[in-house]
Amino acid sequence: MSYVIEPAPQTTVPVAGEDGVFPVCRIWCVGRNYADHAREMGHDPDREPPFFFSKPANAAVPGGTLPFPGQTEDLHHEVELVVAIGKGGKDIDQAKALDHVYGYAIGLDMTRRDLQGGFKKAGRPWELAKGFDESCPISPIVTAAKIGHPTQGKIEVSVNGKVQQTGDMNQMIWSVPEAIAFLSRYVALLPGDLIMTGTPAGVSAVKPGDTMHGTCEGVGEVTVTYKG
């Protein structure tokens, strides 16, 4: 096959302990999957059906020093467990959902909160608040073969050494198997898809010069410094 233009590079994420890399297909994000975060955003945390939004694959970048995003005066961090799908499928049985998981990582769902709020108020889509360039810093993936399928453990992020968000993976409203099964009713999941599983309470703004350090017990860590 020949292309009429040069295709964009394939986005990849390193895999801990492996020479090969994980090719990213799509990034799906579960909204309001921790009750305390739902409350702090002004929503009822009752167990309503989950909803999803997406980021483009090339939003995924490793940690390190990144340029501060433009077009925002209120950039927020949201630390999340990330599920890496290794085997695709549609209408996946919840009991077999974990068979589709290749591994896990920790990621930051960076959000232009001021844009998101404005778009919501106007009844417009808010992809530009979530799916901008480099909006998903992510750690290397660790395989499920090595760590199993974590269901509990501390997940948190600090900014300039001060803890801002902290929670436990067992506080998710919708578990990883439930989220996989539900999402697969609406789209056929593909190898290389990433699922961000929601964030605990404590989201806060960051500015140029700030350093964020996210950790997920048993999974990994990611550090991002925004250029001053």
TrEMBL record:
What GO terms are given for molecular function? acetylpyruvate hydrolase activity; metal ion binding
**Chain ranges of the Fumarylacetoacetase-like C-terminal domain:** 27-224
Q: Does the keyword Metal-binding apply?
A: yes
What Gene3D superfamilies does this protein map onto?
Fumarylacetoacetase-like, C-terminal domain
Record bears the keyword Mitochondrion: no
Q: Which UniProt keywords apply?
A: Hydrolase, Metal-binding
Q: What is this protein called?
A: Fumarylacetoacetate hydrolase
